[in-house]
């Protein structure tokens, strides 16, 4: 939107709590999360770039379900 990325989450001091974006919008959930051949969508890649480059996180923790960044 207007050359900006919307990142859903809450910033509480030096902690950011966010929801990992979906890796894709395909019919087969296994291919979405486990295929090395399916490229990441821009929002997924941008989310992690924002955490690294703008928020400048020292640590990223995935809590709950199996994450796709591992």
What features would you describe in this structure?
- The chain is α+β, with helices and mostly antiparallel strands.
- The chain has one domain (1-70).
- It has helices at residues 29-34, 42-54; strands at 9-12, 15-18.
- A two-stranded antiparallel sheet has the order 1-2.
- A hairpin with a 2-residue loop joins β1 (9-12) and β2 (15-18).
- The chain is globular.
- The protein starts with 8 loop residues before the first strand and ends in a 16-residue tail after the last helix.
- The relative contact order is 0.19.
- The mean pLDDT is 81.
Radius of gyration: 13 Å
Overall spatial form: globular
What is the ordering of alpha helices and beta strands?
EEHH
Number of helices: 2
Mean pLDDT: 81
Low-confidence stretches: none
Fraction in helix: 25-40%
């Amino acid at each position: 939107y207007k050359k900006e990325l919307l990142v859903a989450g809450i910033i509480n001091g030096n902690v950011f709590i966010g929801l990992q974006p979906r890796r894709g919008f395909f019919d087969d959930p296994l291919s979405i999360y486990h295929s090395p051949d399916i490229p990441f969508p821009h929002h997924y890649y941008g989310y992690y770039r924002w955490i690294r480059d703008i928020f400048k996180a020292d640590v990223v923790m995935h809590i709950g379900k199996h994450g796709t960044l591992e």
